[in-house]
Specification:
This protein is of the alpha/beta class. It has a domain of 103 residues: Formyl transferase, N-terminal domain (Rossmann fold, 3-Layer(aba) Sandwich). The protein is built from six helices and seven strands; from the N terminus they run βαβαβαβαβαββα. The chain has a seven-stranded mixed sheet, with helices on both faces. β1, α1 and β2 form a beta-alpha-beta unit. The protein is globular and about 50 Å long. It binds 5-O-phosphono-beta-D-ribofuranosylamine. The site of 5-O-phosphono-beta-D-ribofuranosylamine (GRF) has 13 residues, from α1, β5 and α6. 5-O-phosphono-beta-D-ribofuranosylamine (GRF) binds next to α1, β5 and α6.
Length: 198
Amino acid sequence: MELRLGFLASHNGSNMQAIIDACKNKTLKSKPCVVISNNSKSGAIERAKKENIPYYHLSSSTHSSEEELDKAIRDALKSQNVNLVILAGYMKRLGPHTLKEFNNRVLNIHPALLPKYGGEGMYGILVHEAVIKAKEKKSGVTIHIVNSEYDRGPVINQVEVPVYENDSAETLAQRVLTVEHQTYVETIKKIEEEKIKL
Ligand code: GRF
């Protein structure tokens, strides 16, 4: 199945880049079609420019109404015939219009083993700090389908990552991020091959 990928990313976009690279080197058959960021200065937008992928800055500063912003995001994805939406470090909630249009076709990555260490307020380094504080022996990566609740949609892939005794939140974050890049690509490949059915 040819997947047309639309990315939403708020910051650096290293997960997005790993997927773009896998498309370029033919590990994936999918095509990166559009990048949307709520942050006009994000690394994700810089990467889109460099890769010649159409991009949009869509946020509360471009659309003061939440509903209009939601529709603009939906329309930007539709304009490029996207059929799989990839959240890659996107810090905002998707609205009902976008979720309805792409029902079961939106993926998110979370840097822990959901349902643990997920939900509102659990993002970025805070996740890894909580894992270390709880003295967990393992953390990991979760890929799930997005619905209207934060970090609660059906899990489609999960990979464990060890936590070492001398880990800081930063060393753990780095180890998890490397696995995130591999896991996102592998998951999209399984969707292409219909080994994972959405
Ligand atoms: C990743 O840890 C991802 O799991 C989380 O935000 C981070 C994004 O990193 N949701 P990047 O922007 O892909 O580099």
